[in-house]
Design a protein that fits this description.
alpha+beta, three-stranded antiparallel β-sheet
């Protein structure tokens, strides 16, 4: 059986481009999720050479059409 996970995308607000995707276990507490996302955000900023404040994340929504 698969674990339930939430998927997040990290977006460069200056360009609107998605620059990273990340998944976390759905059973984590909200504070732990935020902490993990902040760590990933910092790593993405360093990797891409952009300001931390330029990046934000959104939860991926499963949109079935």
């Amino acid at each position: 059986m698969k674990k339930a996970v939430k998927h997040y995308k990290f977006i460069n607000s200056a360009t609107g481009n998605i620059i990273n995707y990340h998944s976390l276990d759905e059973s984590l507490e909200a504070e732990k999720i935020k902490e993990e996302l902040e760590k990933v955000k910092a790593q993405v900023a360093i990797k891409n050479g952009i300001y931390l404040a330029t990046i934000y994340w959104e939860e991926e929504k499963d949109e079935v059409k």
